[in-house]
Amino acid sequence: MAAIANAHTILLTLTIDGTENAAGQCIEPYHSPDRTSPVKDPSSSDMTCGIPGKSKDAALCPVKAGSEMRLQFQNYEDSSRDDWVIDKSHKGPILVYLAPLESAGKGDVWFKIFEHGYSDGKWGTDLIRGDKEGKLTITIPADIKPGDYLLRSEVIGLHEAYIDYAKDKSNGAQYFINCAHITISGSGTLEPKGYPIPGIYKTSDPGILFDLYDGNKTPNYSAPGPSLYVAGSSGSVKSNNDLSSTEPSSTSSPSSKKTKPTSSVAADENNDTLQAQGNPKGIEVVVDNSTSAAKKNKLDCLNKRRRRRRAIKTIV
Ligand SMILES: [Cu+2]
After folding, report:
1. What is the pLDDT of residues 52-88, one digit of tens each?
2. Domain of life here (predicted)?
3. Which residues fall inside 5 Å of ion ligand 1, going by CB?
4. How far is the centre of ligand 1, averaged over its atoms, from the C-alpha of 173 (Å)?
5. Cα of 189 to ligand 1 centre, how many Å?
């Protein structure tokens, strides 16, 4: 059943002080042809800033330390689609990391400034779906050192995360990653402890290998990766999922995880597929701030979905 759900997401805009910035402004240009494809191997260099595994050029957007910025995520341009922000099957955390730009994301440089796993009855992905426009507001820590930074946004889809990716590469968590370039101004001096990406997640981490379909587990979910940096804490706040090691993981411990009947997932995805088939206008509706390249990517992505759907039908 893996790879049936192709409804993913990207960081579409970054709004600072009322100015909305798109890809190529401060968001790095998207991977072509399928800009919304997930990364699946947490030890891949694609984890740093998304496929194809290296940070790309983008203009720097200025932001004041301590101020808010708004991220907007989107999957399709047609806002009438139920999955236009992200498919409802894709539940999981949203995380945002920063690293000094000069590092190009390499080394022990990344610190986490936002996370929402599951709290107040909502997954991180529920926040952007619930907003209807895919928007999420975060705050830049007030006390970090001014300078140029990479901002890395990450949405993790846990819909196939009940099986360890190391054991079955057609399953595992899906990582939707984008990087943006920002210049932080202010009078802070702090340089929070950094961690390597790839390296912060193992396929068997409790926030990565997780059974979304066991409702008893959901309230106890905690987001993966290093502890959150909180302004004023003069160092990272320890949390129960703090990393015990910063080594990139090449091994993952054997897991006693059961395999899971997939009927509930399959039903959900079939519904989405039917919905999508009944609503072909996704390719006709175009939002203003897309470049023509982005539009082409969108078409490629849709065509890929259609081809896959035909393939699925043929198998059935
Ligand atoms: Cu997806």
Report:
1. 877 788 999 999 999 999 999 999 988 899 999 999 9
2. Eukaryota
3. 8
4. 10
5. 39
Q: What is the dihedral of CA 266, 178, 280, 133, to 10 degrees?
A: 100
For residue 158 the two structure tokens come to 């846990």
Among residues 164, 163, 159, 152, the alpha carbon closest in space to that of 174 is found at: 159
Tell me how far the alpha carbon of residue 297 lies from the centroid of ligand 1, in angstroms: 16
The answer to whether the CB of 61 falls within 8 A of the CB of 183 is yes
Confidence band of 34 (pLDDT split at 50, 70, 90): confident
177 Cα: distance to centroid of ligand 1 (angstroms): 12
* Contact status, residue 270 vs residue 61, Cβ threshold 8 Å: no
Q: What is the whole-number distance in angstroms between the Cα of residue 38 and the centre of ligand 1?
A: 7
Residue 208 pLDDT > 80: yes
Tally Cβ neighbours within 10 Å of residue 289: 12
**Does 249 have pLDDT greater than 50?**
no
Question: Among 6, 26, 304, which residue's Cα sits nearest to residue 179?
Answer: 26
CA of 10 to the centre of ligand 1 (A): 11
Q: How far is CA 89 from CA 8, 10, 83, 239, 260, in A?
A: 10, 16, 9, 28, 16
Distance 18 CA to ligand 1 centre (A): 30
The rounded distance, in Å, linking the Cα atoms of 104 and 86 is 28
Q: Residue 142 Cα, ligand 1 centroid: separation in angstroms?
A: 34
